[in-house]
Design brief:
two-stranded antiparallel ribbon
């Protein structure tokens, strides 16, 4: 086990590199204030250092709101972080360091307003019923009720986001006026669609759906239940909200 000072005091921290990349992007990203104590405790539990982008975000910011909060990347939020959960809270980390704790199938690193989940694969994705390789970012898609491998690790995934990757990724799942609807949500809410995104009706005409703000826990629970009901597959842990 590495102690906190070993994880924090590194020669080549990733956070300044990420901030430089952030300053050169045209993508709207809000950096939320951090709680340093929560960040340090999370690093210790995860045993990742500030040399990694994951460690840099967890240690130095309360989270990232991308495209006005469409995507919420979890960090270690302070009191003024707009209700966004912490990475520790989303992944149900123990309140005190526990060397036996593991993130299971994978570590949830972000949610989107649709109930989509980005996670880092654990050591054995196949055993967990997930695609991709260990350490690869995978996405639980609420329109297919399944996991998709994205072919990138965490730092490459962040670079893809800052290179406007979300625009194409969500091209068929955004509608005129989505920004104004998203702006009304807090960090623990998402948008519930009727008919749901996975339905034939929504696939045929997204604009014909109705939408309402619901707790993210309700949205994720509905997706998990629907996946179990329709194809007998449990997507597993989607985040403790």
């Amino acid at each position: 086990m590495r102690e906190v000072y070993e994880l924090v005091n590194v020669d080549d921290p990733a956070w300044p590199v990420f901030l430089e990349e952030l300053s050169g992007t045209g993508v709207a990203v809000e950096v939320l204030p951090a709680d340093a104590e929560v960040g340090r405790a999370s690093l210790r539990q995860l045993q990742v250092s500030a040399r990694s982008h994951l460690g840099g975000i967890v240690l130095n910011c309360g989270g990232l709101l991308v495209d006005g909060g469409w995507l919420r990347i979890f960090g270690s939020p302070g009191a003024d972080a707009e209700g966004l959960p912490s990475l520790a809270g989303i992944n149900a980390m123990p309140s005190a360091y526990d060397p036996a704790w593991r993130p299971g199938a994978g570590l949830v690193v972000a949610h989107d307003v649709l109930g989509g989940v980005f996670a880092l694969n654990g050591s054995n994705p196949r055993e967990a019923g997930r695609p991709g390789e260990p350490g690869e970012v995978v996405y639980f898609a609420p329109d297919t009720l399944g996991w998709e491998a994205l072919g990138a690790g965490h730092s490459a995934w962040l670079s893809w986001i800052l290179a406007s990757g979300l625009q194409e990724f969500y091209e068929t799942l955004r509608w005129d006026g989505w920004r104004s609807e998203v702006s009304l949500l807090n960090g623990r809410q998402g948008l519930s669609f009727f008919p749901p995104l996975w339905s034939a009706e929504a696939r045929q005409d997204l604009l014909a759906t109705s939408r309402r703000a619901v707790p993210m826990a309700e949205l994720l629970g509905l997706s998990r239940d629907s996946s179990r009901q329709f194809d007998g597959t449990d997507p597993g842990f989607l985040g403790a909200t």
